[in-house]
Design goal:
Helix content: 25-40%
Number of helices: 10
Radius of gyration: 18 Å
Strand order of the largest sheet: 2-1-3-10-4-11
Mean pLDDT: 91
Oligomer: single chain
């Protein structure tokens, strides 16, 4: 394990990461492991835009970003994935799933927004009309048949009763038998990251060791119990982009191409790290 250092006179790297609880283990130690980099936090959809625009050099972006841009490279085996229920990505429906005609999608989401459309198409053969749920709006503010919520606000049960609740991680694994990768570290192809690739993996390893401390710190900020927060970080999430996660990502790409949600022919490129 070593700290990447910039070459003499090297520029400071710009790292973008997600604001949500699920990403805290990946960035917990990043400042100390990558002192030559500046870290900024934002919502997943905004990070995808920032990487595309060149406003950041590497980002913890929605996995779908790598399916849309042939110029991207996955630069670490650290990721935010699940091998079953994820708890923080849910679809709430006021009607049976097969009767959904209007679907409101959390504005912070790109990957989960595509995932729920794939699940509805595969499971029920339906293609609802899509509208956005702004980040500052609640479930109650939408009159859509179903609403997708992601992130910290999806963890606690809603006040309203719904006909159907889908945990998208659970539904995906039930349908495919594979893990699902929600976010991963990506950069533009060939970008010189000054050794940051190692720091991203090492930060993940340290973050996983510190899950109890992270839960203790973050729980009161989110209005969650410390035990629920720890259970979520430890049991619902998986942080290694291993061989099974790669197969899950490839299956997601295959289905997204099938429904014309992403273009075909874009390769998944992994920068010189071994599958776990």
């Amino acid at each position: 394990m070593h700290d990447p250092q910039p070459e003499s006179g090297g520029r400071r790297l710009r790292i973008g990461a997600v604001t949500y609880l699920n990403s805290k283990p990946l960035v917990e130690s990043l400042a100390e492991l990558a002192p030559h980099a500046d870290l900024r936090l934002d919502f997943p959809s905004r990070l995808a835009d920032q990487l595309r625009q060149g406003a950041i050099d590497v980002g913890l972006v929605p996995s779908v970003a790598t399916l849309l841009n042939p110029g991207y490279e996955i630069v670490s085996d650290a990721c935010v994935a699940t091998r079953g229920p994820v708890l923080s990505v849910k679809m709430y429906s006021r009607v049976p799933a097969g009767q959904i005609r209007r679907l409101s999608l959390d504005e912070g989401s790109r990957t989960s927004a595509m995932l729920v459309r794939i699940l509805l198409a595969e499971r029920h053969g339906i293609f609802p009309a899509i509208e956005k749920l702004p980040l500052d709006c609640s479930l109650e503010s939408s009159s859509a048949d179903a609403i997708l919520l992601i992130g910290d606000r999806a963890i606690l049960p809603p006040a309203e009763s719904f006909e159907v609740t889908w945990d998208l991680g659970e539904e995906w694994t039930r349908m495919t038998g594979l893990p699902f990768v929600f976010a991963l570290w990506a950069s533009r192809r060939g970008e010189d990251l000054q050794g940051l690739e190692d720091a991203l993996c090492n930060a993940r390893d340290l973050g996983v060791e510190r899950l109890e401390a992270i839960a203790r710190r973050e729980a009161p900020l989110l209005g969650l119990s410390e035990q629920l927060t720890l259970d979520y970080l430890r049991d619902n999430l998986y942080y290694h982009l291993g061989e099974a996660e790669r197969r899950g990502l490839a299956r997601f790409q295959q289905l997204a191409v099938k429904y014309d949600l992403v273009p075909g022919g874009i390769p998944l490129v992994f920068r010189h790290f071994a599958a776990a």
